[in-house]
Amino acid sequence: MANLKEIKRKIGSVKNTQKTTNAMKLVSSAKLKRTEELAKKSRVYAEKLTELLNEIAQKMQNANADGIDNVYFKDVQNPKKVDIVFITADKGLCGGFNSQTIKRVKTLLAEYQAKDVKVRLRAVGRKGIDFFKFNNVELSDEIIGLSAAPDFKASAEFISEVAESYVNGDTDKIILVHNGYVNMITQELREDQVLPVDSSNLEFNSASTSELEVEPDDDNTLLDALVKRYVEYTMYYSLIDSLAAEHSARMQAMDAATTNAKEMVKELTVKYNKARQEAITTELIEIISGMESMK
Amino acid sequence: MELLKLEIVTPNGVIFDGEVKQVDLPGSEGEFGVLAGHAALVSLLDTGVIVISKADGSEVAVAINSGYVKVEEEKTTCIVDGAVALSGDDSDLAKALESAKELLKKTESSAMAIASAVSKVEQIGRSL
C-alpha cells in the first residue's frame, strides 16, 4: 500500500518537471525567434563590412608587393602570445552547448601550451567562467551578462580593449571561439581569428573595372577605422549568433526533457495501475479467506 | 536619365534599397554627390545628412552618425552605424526629426560637423 502512495507522488513530481521543461522550451522558442530576427538584420551589415574591408585590403596588397603595411595585417607565423576570447551562456540547461565551447577552448589551450605559447583567456558568460575557475585556470577577463543580452556598445568596449593590447604588442593573435547558430536543430562551433586580419582568405570579386579611389587619401586611416569597426562588429555578431545558438540548444534540450518526462509518467502510471490491482486482489483474497474460515 | 542602385545598411538592417537619380553624401573630406556611372570610390562618412533624389524628383533625407560608402559604377553601398530617415507624415516626421537630432548630438565627431548636420536637419524639417 505504501508503494501505491509513493508511485503517485513520483508521478506528480515528474509531471511538475514536465511543466517546467515545457515552459522553458516555449520561452526559448520565443526568444530564439527574436534573436534570429536580430541576427538576420545584422548579418547584412556584417557581410557588407567584410566585403568592403576585403576590397580595400586587396587593393593595398596589389599596390604593395610586400603585403599590407598595416599593424592589423601583420602576419605572425609563430605567435608567442595568444588571446582566446570565448563565449558561453550565463545559464545552463541547454545540452552540450557550453561544454562544447569549453572543450574546444581546452584543446586550444593545450595545443598552444605545448608549443610554449603564452595564452590569455578572456571569458564571456558565466558558465565558462565557472568552469575555468573551478579548474584553477587563470582568466584575464570575466564578463557576465553580455552573452544573455548582447549590447553593441558594451561588446565594442570589451573587444576594443583586447584589440588595443594587440596593437600595443601584448598579444600576437586574437582568437574568438563561440558556438554558432545554423538552424533550429543544429549548432556549430566556430573559431575565428579576429586579429590579425587573415589576408590570405581575402576574396576579390568586384564588379567595378575602374581603379578604386580612396578618401581620405591615406589608406591607413580608412583601413584602421574599418578594421576597428570590423573587430567590434565581429564580436557583437558572434554574441548574437551565440545567443541564438543557446536558445536553439536549450529548446532542443527542453524538448527532449519534456518527451522523457512524458514517457516516465506513462511508465509510472502503468506501474501504479498494476500496484493498485495487486492491492485489490490481495484485499479480496483476505476477505474471501476470512469468510471461508467463518463457515 | 540613368539611375543608380543605392543601398543603405545599418546594424539594424537595410533601411534603403532602390534606384535613385542622385545621392549626396557627407564624406570625411567634404560633401560629394554621386550619379550613375560614378568611378569606383571608397570613403569614410562623417556625421551628416544623406540626401537621396529619387527618380520621381522627390527627396529623402537620412541623418547618419558615421560610416563608410563604397561607390561602384553599378551600385552604391552605404554602411552606416546609426541612421534616422526623415520622411513619413507629419507626426512621424516630428518624431524622426527629434531622434535624428539626438543621434547627431551623441556622436563623437567635431562640434562643427554636428552643428552643421543639426541645422541641415532643421532646415529639412521646415521645408517638408
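Residues 162 and 174 of chain A are 8 Å apart (CA to CA).
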